[in-house]
Amino acid sequence: MTTILVTTTEHIPGQDYEVLGEVFGLTTQSKNVLRNIGASLKNVVGGEIRDYTKMLDEARRIAVDRLRQNAADMGADAVVMMRFDSGSIGTDMQSVAAYGTAVKYK
């Protein structure tokens, strides 16, 4: 797969392109039971729960990689207006969606 530019802006400076359609990248992540116990203990004393931060960071990277692959499969050169959405499923799972508009340079 060639590198697909992903941008949160509506326009790519200096590029003229046609819109191909919407693209998505989705993932749902969960931590193991031992890390959930550690996170629960951290919840009592407060502060950042680093394992969950790492999980969300990994989920965002996976979602963007899948978004890029979806765009490449459509023949796109770039994705504009990329956004993230996330939500919890139960107490220990996190779902992340990356979405945007696939475009092809003219």
Automatic annotation (TrEMBL):
Gene3D superfamilies: Hypothetical protein apc22750. Chain B
Taxonomic superkingdom: Bacteria
InterPro entries, per database record: UPF0145_dom_sf, UPF0145_YbjQ-like
Pfam family, one: YbjQ_1
HAMAP family xrefs: UPF0145
PANTHER family named in the record: UPF0145 PROTEIN SCO3412, UPF0145 PROTEIN YBJQ
Family statement: Belongs to the UPF0145 family.
Protein's name according to its UniProt entry: UPF0145 protein ACFP1C_11745
Species annotation: Levilactobacillus fujinensis
Lineage: Bacteria, Bacillati, Bacillota, Bacilli, Lactobacillales
